[in-house]
Amino acid sequence: MKIEIVVDPARPAPPASLVSRVAPAASAPAASDARGASCCILQRPEWADVVPLEQYENVTPLAPIFYTDEYRDATNYFRGIVKSGEMSPRVLELTENVIRQNPGHYSAWQYRYKTLMALKSPLDDELQLMDELAIKHLKTYQVWHHRRLLVQQTRNPGPELEFIANSLQVDMKNYHTWSYRQWILAYFNDDALWSHELDFVESMLESDVRNNSAWHHRFFVAFQSGVRNGDEDRDAIVRRELAFVKERIAIAPNNASAWNYLRGVLDHAKIPYSELQAFVLPYSLPQLPLGIPPEVVDLENPLPSKDSQLPCVAAVEFMADIHEAAGGGDLVKATELWKSLANEHDTIRKRYWEYRIAESLKTKSGGDG
Amino acid sequence: MLPASLPPLSKGGHAAHCKRCLSGLPSSQVDIDPAKLALSFYCLGSLDVSGELEKKTKDWEREQWREWIWSQQTRGHHGTGFRASSYMTAKHSTEEHSGHDNPQIIMTYTALLSLSILRDNFSRLDRKGLLEFLRSCQNIDGSFSSEPLGGDSDLRTTFCAFAISTMLDDWSGMDVANALQFIYSCRTYEGGYGQSPFGEALGGTTYCALAALRLATKQLDPLSLQDRQKTVRWLVQNQAYNGGFSGRTNKDADACYCFWCGASLHVLDAGDLVDNAAMSSFIASCQFKYGGIAKIPGEHPDPYHTYLSLAAVALLPPNSSEGASWALCPLDPLLNATYQTSSWARAHIPAPKVDDDALGDAGI
Ligand SMILES: [Zn+2]
Fold first, then answer.
1. Is the ipTM of this complex over 0.90?
2. May I ask which residue range the UniProt record assigns to the signal sequence (chain A) (predicted)?
């Protein structure tokens, strides 16, 4: 048998909504300070016809939240509106109020979108409001989901790229922001939209060459959805990307993102790692080879910038992979490199490098047998 | 250099932090409402994995929690599941369905695990409705939406469908081949999995992908040899020099990724490649002095990072010489609960088997 009670741990009685609507001055003294301007919208006479609905629990809830009066008020009216099914301009006002207090309020977003559609509201205004809310709540999923729905209606993705570029200035690695950019590009997929994407990535990498989101985006542009008509010469694209990533590695050798990108390009194009040996080798040595006169600088294979910390762990790993693939006597060389990683250069992954040694021995003995 | 021995893991303190959250949250936590069952799972999970549930809670409390979780089971227009909380529930409107009080797939997964932690007998579970709910959440591309006919869909929501099907021991709620196809489409050149196709490799969603693959295929290795090597490499690379794990390449370590990456490695039978001692040392440094574990040292704790840190330690414990404080209950990495709880789930959530002999005797 259940005992039905309204559990209201924060504020037993009277319901804040009623108090504030009928007689604001009569509200509990302790709470009066908390009644900021934003809850006043509900005290206006035009809300008098709405019956606010309290949140209802028929059993003691887990983790009850001690709502502010302001929030309780707004959500009581919101529940009332949802029950009546009203879709009107004041609903936009109310849902904005709720969302500003709780940007994760799933239902408020949902109902707001329905109302916008029902009213045929100007969506550019809504997007402008979203420009502000998105920057404020970059990490809230709903902000981005709502934006997607809106742009699917306006079918005007152009301004979005600039908006995204601006919000990436606030948080350069924000996952939602990057996903949204990838979605805009892939969903609308027109050439004009894509035309400056490589420049954009390059400028992002200019600000931070270690930004993995930007590297990932570059792969998406160069090898996935970004492939355009006229890009059919895939070998040229691969050469361009290899040159690009080599230059970035030369500037900052200890950058896992760039090395992962290099591997990604090679795997994608099915190019054996050994073809990069001339480039990678100097990075895997404890110091730059002495006495290389500047005139013999190999543009294909830029050397690590001065003051680089060498050897570079990723380069040592890369050289070991080359030796392992060669097999035979080269396995000894690979093992030496893995040992140096395990015991000296990358000790946190000692177990991994020892595992690589053990695995290569297994393959070798398997091959011999 | 890492300290020679670890400070103790303050199990009691962390359990107390979670117990406090279960009894109430400040108004600043209002964004928890649309995900409250998930928060409840992190709190209950912390109590469970640290072996503190019986000590820290009373029978009547656990009974009350079960009741509240069951009161979130909702029949919508498209099947039955659990909604996040009662935040959209108004009095006297329990009978009618507003369409804004919907069950949600992540909440359903966490509700089933929470009820298992509380050793419920699941006699109230609407299994048929739950399968209907799953079916109506699956999209054309194989992914699952958070709720029927739309909403966000990604690897997290898709993993939940795999976990729910496993717990039900019934896969008729999904097109498995199509769902697997979606998972493969989220793979990136780094070897991890993004949140959705074309997304950057991320620790949490990589766990979702690998655990789902393993739950569905039951093979020891759901990936090709080459793919597995690449994924293991990327996961191992995410262990930072301070011992913690980052969720993406070149990001700082964060306690929750000790679980997401560590468990991913465990799922690939490569858990032994983690430097457990360094990982535990990082987690030790994220402990808040009044209980709870934060994402990084010096921040405020929360149940999410507390649970995932404890789960990571349970899965990849430091050397036993670190003492009893670091000993936790063994964890099932695929469902993300202690083995005792996941066995309970697997034993009690499936529809009771029809006994053929009994039917025969009854002359049916
Ligand atoms: Zn985290």
1. yes
2. none
Q: Is the confidence at residue B63, as pLDDT, over 50?
A: yes
Tokens 């013999």 -> residue: A296
Domain extents for chain A?
27-121
* Among B283, B236, B225, residue whose Cα is nearest residue B264: B236
> Which of A283-297, B154-168, B235-249 shows the lowest per-residue confidence on average (mean pLDDT)?
A283-297
The alpha carbon of residue A96 is apart from the nearest alpha carbon of chain B, in Å, by: 15
Half-sphere exposure of B227 (CA within 13 A, CB side): 12
- Residues less than 5 Å from ion ligand 1, measured at CB: B 254, 256, 295
Mutant choice from A352, A360, A363 vs B, greatest count of B C-beta within 10 A = A352
Cα B136 to ligand 1 centre (Å)? 31
Decide if A289 contacts A281 (C-beta within 8 A): no
Burial class of residue B196 in the structure, from the number of CB atoms within 10 Å of its CB (0-12 exposed, 13-18 middle, 19+ buried)? buried
**pLDDT for residue A5:** 29
Interhelix angle for B276-285 vs B255-267, to 10°? 160
User: At CB < 8 A and 24+ separation, what contacts does A143-151 make?
Assistant: A143/A103, A143/A176, A144/A176, A144/A177, A144/A179, A144/A180, A145/A109, A145/B152, A146/A109, A146/A112, A146/A113, A147/A180, A148/A180, A148/A183, A149/A113, A150/A113, A150/A116, A150/A123, A150/A126, A151/A127, A151/A184
Residue A15 has pLDDT above 80, yes or no: no
Which neighbouring-strand residues pair with B239? B245
Beta-bridged to residue B144, according to DSSP, are B138
Q: Looking at the complex, does the CB of residue B73 fall below 8 Å from at least one CB of chain A?
A: no
Q: What is the mean pLDDT of residues B79-102?
A: 78
Cα A200 from Cα B231, distance rounded (Å): 29
The Cα B137–Cα B153 span in angstroms is 9
> pLDDT confidence of A229, banded at 50, 70, 90?
confident
pLDDT at A3 over 60: no
Task: Please give the residue that has the higher pLDDT: either B98 or B126.
Answer: B126
pLDDT value at position A24?
30
Nearest chain A CA: its distance from B324 CA (Å): 25
Q: What is the three-class DSSP state of A338?
A: helix
pLDDT higher than 80, residue B196 = yes
Q: Is the Cβ pair A82, B100 closer than 8 Å?
A: yes
Mark whether A173 is an active-site residue.
no
The whole-chain average pLDDT of chain A stands at 86
pTM here is 0.91
